[in-house]
Design goal:
The protein has helices spanning 20-29, 33-36, 40-51, 61-70, 74-81, 89-102, 106-131, 134-146, 148-154, 160-179, 183-199, 207-220, 226-257, 267-276, 279-290, 298-321, 336-348, 352-373, 396-406, 426-433, 449-452, 463-467, 492-501, and strands at residues 412-416, 441-442, 474-480, 502-510, 513-520. It is mainly alpha-helical. The protein is elongated, with a radius of gyration of 27 Å.
Length: 521
């Protein structure tokens, strides 16, 4: 008679006791599937480091450029990107609709980048699982989450977090297409390529290592022509779809990035601490990445190193021989998933305790850099850990506090910047951090960026007329630098127009800026 649910089994029916490690595995399988997913913990870890102190860093001039654009109507944004900054146009349009719902606080502006980096962490873990195994994928995602660059650019209102997400998603979709090359999977891969291109064209250089992955897969099954045919078809479809942006960006490149210096040979190594976000953590991550060569999947190891090294080398060559230089660390963050997968594969080869110890060491080495890159003026450190010596970080928030503390109704403002300094966004930054109930007339404001279909405004052509027949009783003069001579950063005619009618009451300085109160004579 078979036992009922309430009856105990006979001694002859009892199963032998399972080994302890087997019982642990059975208990693990009773945990809900999402909790066991290799992508979940990297996503959560990245969200934690991305949201930590997310509002502490002062918005810097790249983010202020974003702000100046996304406030405009969508049609005006499209008009602008026909003239300048087309490479960020897709991101601008997305963030325009985002802030229309969630507002333009620092948290609201930066949250999409935090979420994008978290998505990239999940894709990194999934890529690691497909290239190696589940343990390697989980560790890869956690390494990615600990990189200081991930937190830093996950907290920036620019497109770079989205670029990393698109690149990581494209890698996962490529691996899926190589496993089973159906038309739908190649179409999904083509969409990811198109997204990468429209978020930042330079990122498509990762197609070179992807081609290596396709070649390796085809070499194992040379009768399967669907592999190279599907890849070529997806690439052609993405290139055709992105051609309008390629055409626009080519004409704008000299203005956009003509200031970037050309690299030298030593920069092929020097760029890596800037890509990963610190010297010590870079040494640790690349060291454990080397351990991946001991894996039993040499093809995956080769693909991982191609994902990490080929784009950097290709951009170095293009920057040394092309008309403009693209050799900037923030243009290369899409290599982070490949580097993290290699590090995860290397750490997964050792025993579990050693794996956990390796993760702990990477986290501890990254901690000092994380602290720096979560600091008040950290966003101006755009090539960290290399020090930025050619300007002092501008503390727009502290300058706005000085103005707000001394504000009287009827005050006006002048921003001490000549025409080529307008891109620092002194006017946009100070207005952003002023309380909403303080509205100051900018006495020297000319055409706005929106009116010009450009990023930045102009100064009024006639400063004397701009002050009017009855000038305001007090003017706050906010200047970039200018601590010794607050009038020195203004064009001479504008400085004279102020000095003829106003006397200097006092000057206070904050990082990179001076706030002066002018009182009418």
């Amino acid at each position: 008679m078979p036992p009922t649910l309430s009856s105990a089994p006979d001694a002859s029916e009892r199963r032998p006791e399972q080994p302890r490690h087997r019982r642990g595995l059975d208990a693990l399988h009773r945990v809900p599937r999402p909790v066991r997913s290799v992508w979940l913990w990297p996503v959560l870890a990245t969200l934690v480091v991305g949201l930590y102190h997310v509002t502490v860093p002062v918005m810097w001039h790249d983010e202020l450029a974003t702000l100046s654009v996304v406030r405009r109507p969508a049609g005006d944004i499209i008009d602008m990107i026909r003239h300048v900054d087309a490479v960020h146009g897709t991101y601008y349009l997305f963030l325009h609709f985002w802030i229309s719902v969630f507002g333009e606080s620092p948290l609201a502006m930066r949250l999409p980048s935090v979420l994008a980096m978290a998505g990239a962490a999940g894709c990194t873990a999934l890529a690691g699982r497909r290239m190696f195994d589940a343990r390697a994928g989980l560790v890869a995602g956690l390494v990615f989450a600990m990189l200081p660059t991930v937190a830093r650019y996950g907290q920036e209102a620019r497109s770079y977090g989205f670029v990393v997400f698109a690149a990581a998603a494209a890698l996962v979709l490529l691996l899926r297409a190589l496993e089973r090359p159906t038309a739908l999977r190649w179409l999904a891969y083509a969409v990811a390529l198109c997204c990468s291109g429209y978020l930042h064209l330079v990122s498509l250089v990762y197609l070179a290592p992807h081609a290596v992955g396709v070649a390796l897969a085809w070499w194992r099954d040379r009768r399967n022509w669907r592999l190279p045919a599907g890849f070529v078809g997806a690439v052609l479809a993405a290139v055709v779809a992105a051609y309008p942006l390629v055409h626009l960006s080519g004409k704008q490149a000299a203005r956009q990035i003509g200031w970037i210096g050309r690299p030298v040979f030593g920069d092929l190594w020097n760029i890596w601490p800037q890509i990963l976000g610190g010297t010590s953590v870079t040494v640790a991550v690349l060291t454990v990445a080397v351990l991946a060569v001991g894996s039993k999947r040499p093809g995956s190891v080769l693909l991982g190193w191609c994902l990490a090294l080929i784009p950097v080398g290709a951009l170095w060559v293009a920057s040394t021989h092309g008309s403009v230089s693209y050799f900037m660390p923030k243009y290369m963050f899409f290599v982070l998933p490949g580097v993290s997968v290699l590090a995860g594969a290397g750490l997964a080869l050792v025993r579990l305790r050693a794996t956990l110890a390796g993760l702990a060491v990477i986290g501890l080495l990254a901690l000092p850099d994380q602290r720096v890159l979560h600091g008040t003026l950290s966003h101006a450190k755009y090539v960290y850990p290399v020090p930025v010596t050619w300007f002092d970080p501008l503390d727009y928030r502290a300058a706005a506090r000085l103005v707000a503390a001394g504000y009287h109704p009827g005050d006006a403002v002048a921003y001490g910047q000549n025409q080529w300094q307008l891109w620092w966004g002194v006017d946009i930054g100070v207005r952003y951090y002023l309380p909403k109930d303080i509205v100051l007339r900018d006495v020297f404001a000319g055409q706005s960026g929106q009116e010009r279909d450009d990023l930045w405004p102009t100064l009024t052509p006639d400063p004397k007329t701009a002050l009017g027949t009855t000038p305001p009783p007090r003017i706050w003069l906010v200047t970039k630098d200018g601590g010794q001579d607050p009038f020195g950063t203004l064009p001479p005619a504008y400085a004279k127009a102020l000095q003829d009618r106003y006397k200097l009451d006092h000057v206070k300085t904050v990082s990179g800026m001076a706030v002066s109160l002018l009182v009418r004579r």
